[in-house]
Write a structure and sequence with these properties.
The protein contains eleven helices and 14 strands. It is of the alpha+beta class. It has a five-stranded mixed sheet. The protein has a five-stranded mixed sheet with strand order 7-9-10-12-11, covered by helices on one side. Strands 6-8 form a two-stranded antiparallel ribbon.
């Protein structure tokens, strides 16, 4: 045991410290967004320079060869100016050297004349015609010249600069042309590298200022926020920019604010759940004592006591059951409904009798549910739904009457009807209705309370209980007052083959 503890202490001392969430690790230049942006900018500029270089080198070759044709044309004019076209051998070599050619031929009409030629015989390796060419073939010839090597002899045919003949032919050594093209390529490469670095630097600085720095700030703010999402001071500040970065910062601010609010609300709910569990524990004991007293009260031989004692005992039983469920589950989620089929009129009468003592003489409750209407639901759940809706209506009417804004006596009516799929209950009053500001979060806990001291739990609980039955609780538009509909569908009957073909109900028997 001691050796194990000593090993654990050694591992704790040698383990590297984890980086804090508030301080993000800085990526290396080439691995970060800035380095990638710089590398991509240089790459794209170089690609653009290559696309410019390809036709440029082809045009350089054609221009160089046309210059040789023009020089050869001048040499032919010199020969034509000499008497009988006779020149000295020294002048002939000088003319060939100035033209950069080894032989010059001129075609006039149907005759072709060799004007100048070298002393040694020539073997032509390649032919090029400058009179009519395509750019793709010119690009191919240019790279063929670069890759061919030195010493290749080429015959070039071109139209003379002046209209003194049909065409002019020269035979040249391609080595000077290749050397000139290599120098041109090196100059273009050097210039491309310099330009790409300059352009990349400007693009990098601009994009770093417009994109990278704001994204880096938001990244740090998000990591800082993740350390304590419930701290409102860690929420990223929204930007006033009108571009996508500004929209992203404002949306991030909104999402973080909503998340902080939700986490704070869940913390309050957790604290409330713990408090409710403690209160329910003590309240259950007090209700148990009250239940014993009510049981003995039911033995009193008095008609009034005999009338109200069963209702009191039933209410105490229901309260003790709620406290027990709170302690058992320790959570806000309600138990699944235990559905049965029963007459709704009697349940509504119990709700009215439970609310009537709390209501003043200015509010009248009406039970307008048909006596023969039955519903398929959990009796206790439905009692809680109608009790919450009726109590809210009574409190709203009394609050309006206290403010002097109720022109007549308050009325709360409970109606119900059936259709082919289930039953619908309506709780309506003639009060001021639901305020517009409360409609957006009407069925959310701690959000819909409009009365002083109200937590807004009644409608949230009622909506949850209705949804547990597969139904819904909704506010219905009405010209006056507030009207709520509770829709409870019947269970779906499924016919399954049995040993005697009996019918089985999904969700339990009714």
């Amino acid at each position: 045991m001691a050796a194990d503890e000593r090993d654990d202490r050694i591992e704790e001392r040698t383990a590297p410290a984890a980086p804090e969430a508030d301080e993000p690790t800085r990526p290396r230049l080439l691995r970060g967004l800035s380095g990638k942006l710089l590398a991509l900018t240089v790459l794209f500029v170089m690609i653009g320079e290559v696309l410019i270089y390809v036709p440029s080198i082809a045009n350089f070759r054609i221009t160089w060869l046309n210059d040789r044709i023009a020089a050869a044309q001048i040499a032919t004019l010199v020969l034509e100016a000499a008497p009988d076209n006779m020149v000295s051998e020294e002048l002939r070599r000088e003319l060939l050297r100035s033209a950069g050619a080894k032989a010059v031929a001129l075609k006039r009409g149907d005759t072709r004349q060799l004007v100048l030629k070298a002393d040694q015989p020539l073997e032509v390796d390649r032919h090029t015609d400058l009179r009519d060419f395509m750019w793709m073939s010119a690009i191919y010839d240019a790279f063929d010249t670069l890759l061919a090597g030195d010493g290749r002899i080429v015959r070039v045919v071109g139209a003379p600069p002046q209209d003194s003949g049909n065409f002019l032919e020269i035979v040249i050594d391609e080595t000077p042309l290749r050397a000139a093209m290599l120098r041109y390529s090196i100059n273009i490469l050097t210039l491309s590298i310099v330009l790409s670095l300059i352009v990349a630097a400007f693009v990098f600085l601009a994009l770093n200022w417009l994109l990278v720095r704001p994204l880096r700030r938001m990244t740090r703010a998000m990591l800082h926020f993740s350390g304590d999402p419930e701290d409102t001071s860690r929420i990223v500040a929204p930007s006033n920019r009108q571009d996508e970065i500004g929209v992203m910062s404002r949306e991030l601010n909104r999402m973080q604010s909503e998340l902080t609010g939700m986490l704070q609300q869940k913390s309050r709910l957790a604290a409330l759940g713990l408090a409710v569990s403690k209160i329910s524990h003590d309240l259950r004991n007090m209700l148990a004592s009250a239940q014993l007293i009510s049981d003995r009260l039911g033995q009193v031989n008095d008609p009034t006591v005999q009338k109200f004692a069963p209702k009191l005992i039933a209410s105490l039983d229901r309260a003790i059951s709620f406290c027990a469920q709170t302690l058992k589950y320790g959570r806000v989620k309600e138990a699944p409904p235990r559905r049965e089929r029963f007459a709704l009129h009697g349940l509504v009468e119990e709700v009215v009798e439970a609310i009537a003592p709390q209501a003043s003489s200015r509010v009248v409750l009406y039970n307008e549910v048909p006596p023969d209407l039955e519903i398929d639901a959990d009796r206790d759940h439905l009692h809680r739904i109608l009790l919450n809706l009726t109590r809210n209506a009574v409190q709203a009417l009394e609050q309006t009457a206290d403010a002097g804004r109720l022109a007549e006596d308050g009325r709360v009516r409970v109606r119900a009807w059936r259709d082919r799929t289930g039953a619908t209950m309506e709780v309506a009053d003639n009060g001021p209705g639901v305020p517009a500001k409360a409609r957006a979060h009407l069925f959310e806990a701690f959000q819909a309370g409009t009365k002083p001291g109200s937590a807004g739990l009644g409608l949230a609980i009622s909506g949850e209980l209705a949804r547990a039955h597969g139904g819904e609780l909704r506010l219905v538009d009405s010209p006056s007052g507030a009207v709520f509909h509770v829709v409870i569908p019947d269970r779906v009957a499924e016919l399954r083959p049995g040993r005697r073909g009996e019918r089985r109900m999904s969700g339990g028997s009714s």
